[in-house]
């Protein structure tokens, strides 16, 4: 009973003490109700007006920095997205171009180009170089991959739509200096231009097609200079003036028309070449002679030479004497063509005969022929003699009968 009462008092005391604490707290709260803090009390948490300006300025700098980073990233992304596409071929099969050309130590002045074939990024192009008189100097062909700049392909073609700063082909250390507008074959075009510091190479390519429009290049010991004068790659073709027409020639061929196969002489032929319009002798022409066997196959072909310079007379002589060449019997055809430099502009022909044939040269054959002829003549004489004798006898018999008739 005593112990129970003591514990009860202790518990009651603790309870009253806790209640007193709670009551004190409640009284403090009640005594000092919540109100907005004064500026001085919160000075360490809220900056002054000067501090606010500094923070605002710093925020602006941060925003600008972020924008610059974004712009740089965007520019880099744009550049990556717009990187040169070296797989794009700008020309097409059938495109042509004509260039005014000059090459060291070479006498041609115009070049014609034809895009012959395209497979992927590999282009095949045919070229024809023309002499100053309009005749063909030579024809040649190139083929290569424009994406990797196979030499000499990059001289004439690049990928389409390259621009300043781009390598002229993938992996090249040569980059386009500038992209400009210039007149090409009479039409304003956007072109890419590159020039090496030492001046040994300078080229312009049409941007849209990658086709070379102008080239000055030093290769080994030659300077190559090309300037485009016409093309159908992007415009209606204005053909260059036709090459000058080669002069027409008049050719008169002469020679012996009948040879014996045992003759100890050469076959010799001559041709007089004149200008068709002026009838003046032509010197320096290229005269080709071709002689055909009687069966139509070619026996020999050669060049006739102007031995008497300035006369226009060109001669040809066989390599051996007739008796040693053992030519077959028959009629031989001689054809002569005169070239001023390109296609022939004059020609002539003649026929000559080789007789008798090699196999008829045997003396026994000649003797047999003589015997047969003699036999024929003797037989004919015998027949005529017999005929005359019989006629004479008939006349004698008729005369004798007439004399025996009685008189009336």
The beta-strand count equals 17
Number of helices: 5
- SS strand fraction: 35-45%
Radius of gyration: 56 Å
**Biggest pleated-sheet summary:** 9 strands, antiparallel
Overall form = rod-shaped
Explain the overall architecture.
With 408 residues, the chain is an alpha+beta fold. Among the domains are: 96-231, no CATH class; 249-360, Sandwich (Immunoglobulin-like). Helix content is 28%, strand content 36%. It contains 5 helices and 17 strands. The chain has helices spanning 2-31, 49-81, 153-156, 322-325, 363-404; strands at 96-103, 108-119, 122-131, 136-145, 178-184, 187-195, 201-206, 212-219, 222-231, 249-255, 258-259, 266-275, 286-292, 298-308, 313-321, 330-339, 346-354. Strands 4-3-2-1-9-8-7-6-5 form a 9-stranded antiparallel sheet. It has an 8-stranded mixed sheet with strand order 10-12-15-14-13-16-17-11. A hairpin with a 2-residue loop joins strand 2 and strand 3. The longest helix has 42 residues, at 363-404. The model is unreliable at 1-8, 12-17, 19-46 and 77-81 (pLDDT under 50).
């Amino acid at each position: 009973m005593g112990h129970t009462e003591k514990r009860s008092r202790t518990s009651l005391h603790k309870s009253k003490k806790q209640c007193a604490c709670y009551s004190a707290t409640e009284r403090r709260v009640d005594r000092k109700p919540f109100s907005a803090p004064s500026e001085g009390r919160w000075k360490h948490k809220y900056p002054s007006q000067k501090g606010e300006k500094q923070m605002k300025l710093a925020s602006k700098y941060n925003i600008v920095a972020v924008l610059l980073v974004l712009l740089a990233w965007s520019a880099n992304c744009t550049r990556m997205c717009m990187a040169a596409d070296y797989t794009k071929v700008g020309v097409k099969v059938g495109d042509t171009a004509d260039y005014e050309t000059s090459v060291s130590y070479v006498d041609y002045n115009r070049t014609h180009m034809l895009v012959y074939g395209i497979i992927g990024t590999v282009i095949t192009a045919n070229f024809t170089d023309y002499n100053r008189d309009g005749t063909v100097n030579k024809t040649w062909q190139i083929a290569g991959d424009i994406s990797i700049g196979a030499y000499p392909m990059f001289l004439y073609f690049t990928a389409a739509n390259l621009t300043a700063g781009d390598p002229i082909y993938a992996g090249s250390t040569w980059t386009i200096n500038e992209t400009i507008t210039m007149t090409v074959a009479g039409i304003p075009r956007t072109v890419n231009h590159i020039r090496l510091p030492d001046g040994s190479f300078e080229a312009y390519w049409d941007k849209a097609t990658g086709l070379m429009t102008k080239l000055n290049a030093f290769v080994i010991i030659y300077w190559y200079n090309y300037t485009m004068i016409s093309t159908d790659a992007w415009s209606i073709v204005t053909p260059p003036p036709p090459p000058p027409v080669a002069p027409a020639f008049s050719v008169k061929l002469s020679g012996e028309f009948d040879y014996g196969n045992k003759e100890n002489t050469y076959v010799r032929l001559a041709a007089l070449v004149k200008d068709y319009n002026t009838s003046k002798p032509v010197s320096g022409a290229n005269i080709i002679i071709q002689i055909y066997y009687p069966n139509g196959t070619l026996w020999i072909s050669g060049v006739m030479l102007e031995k008497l310079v300035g006369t226009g007379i060109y001669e040809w002589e066989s390599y051996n004497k007739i008796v040693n060449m053992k030519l077959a019997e028959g009629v031989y055809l001689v054809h002569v063509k005169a070239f001023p430099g390109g296609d022939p502009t004059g020609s002539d022909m003649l026929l000559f005969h080789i007789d008798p044939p090699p196999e008829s040269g045997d003396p026994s054959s000649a003797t047999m022929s003589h015997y047969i002829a003699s036999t024929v003549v003797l037989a004919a004489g015998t027949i005529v003699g017999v005929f005359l004798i019989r006629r004479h006898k008939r006349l004698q018999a008729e005369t004798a009968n007439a004399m025996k008739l009685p008189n009336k």
